[in-house]
Amino acid sequence: MKGAVVDVDGTVLRGERAVEGAREGIETLRDAGVRLVFLSNNPTVTNEDLAERLRSAGVDVGEATVLSSASLTARHVGDEYPDARVYVLGESALVESVAECVEVVEEPERATVAVVSLDRGLGYGDIRDAVEAARNADVFLSTDPDAIVPTGDGDIPGTGAVTSAVESAVGREAKTVGKPSSVAATAALDALETSPDDTLFVGDRLNTDVALGEKVGAKTALVRSGVTGEEDVDGSAHEPDEVVETLADLRHLL
Ligand SMILES: [Mg+2]
Fold first, then answer.
1. CATH 2.120.10.30 fits 3-41+179-253, yes or no
2. Is the separation of the CB atoms in 94 and 143 below 8 Å?
3. Do domains 3-41+179-253 and 70-176 have the same CATH topology?
4. Ligand 1 centroid vs 132 CA: distance in angstroms?
């Protein structure tokens, strides 16, 4: 194994603290010469915010690339649609990340690309404007598919829930940029400079982290420190190669 794509929430962090065994697991991988990418579907943080959260919890980020779905989405739009005018429904980290790559517009009728995401300050007017943008734009994107996001204060509706509201009003499906899209898989492998054959994809969600690795034919590991229980694994369409309690249990793969 030369590289590992590691999920953040539920895998390395729970809230603002490190999951038990996570620091040890990351050190073990790094000591074995495995390059790391931390890849999060969280669209409310920049890469810098995410790296800072990891460091604050005592996780040694080192040379690892840290990617949030906000930055993935911003890069994707900048690469694929450099002349776009983008309407963004999302939090400031997403708006700022997109604005670094391409023009952001406030008027939904001017948008050529519509991006929808989790916004904890969401109001009816935001949904209405996002619907107008998604109806008129050439491209309709969603930062990630997560319908529910676990937080220290319980589960909250995530991007998937917001996207569904806009999709149902427009009658059009958004393309997802974060995990498990091929955009996310390619970005992670590019950052690692590894091939799927020598890369492990690890996380606590079957439909995003494990599905992402399956998409590119890589080895996958599910950690049970997050949202997925044993009963979910049995009935799932996604089959992780390994099921472990925490990242520390990955040492036998080295
Ligand atoms: Mg997770």
1. no
2. yes
3. yes
4. 32
Architecture of domain 70-176: 3-Layer(aba) Sandwich (3.40)
Distance 213 CA to ligand 1 centre (A): 14
Distance, CA of 136 to CA of 110 (rounded, Å) = 8
Distance 126 CA to ligand 1 centre (A): 27
The pTM (predicted TM-score) of the whole model is 0.94
Tens of pLDDT, residue by residue over 231-241, are: 788 888 999 99
Instruction: Report the relative pairing of strands 154-157 and 148-151 from DSSP bridges.
Output: antiparallel
- Report strand pairing: 17-18 vs 13-14: antiparallel
Distance from residue 107's CA to the centre of ligand 1 (Å): 34
Q: Under DSSP, is residue 181 helix (H, G, I), strand (E, B) or coil?
A: coil
Q: Which protein residues have their CB within 5 A of the ion that is ligand 1?
A: 7, 9-10, 204
**CA 68 – ligand 1 centroid, Å:** 12
| Percentage of residues in the chain having pLDDT higher than 90 | 88
Distance in Å, CA 159 to ligand 1 centroid: 14
Domain extent listing, the chain: 3-41+179-253, 70-176
Distance 14 CA to ligand 1 centre (A): 9
The CA 42 to ligand 1 mean position distance, Å, reads 9
* Angle, vertex CA 214, rays to CA 210 and CA 219, nearest 5: 80
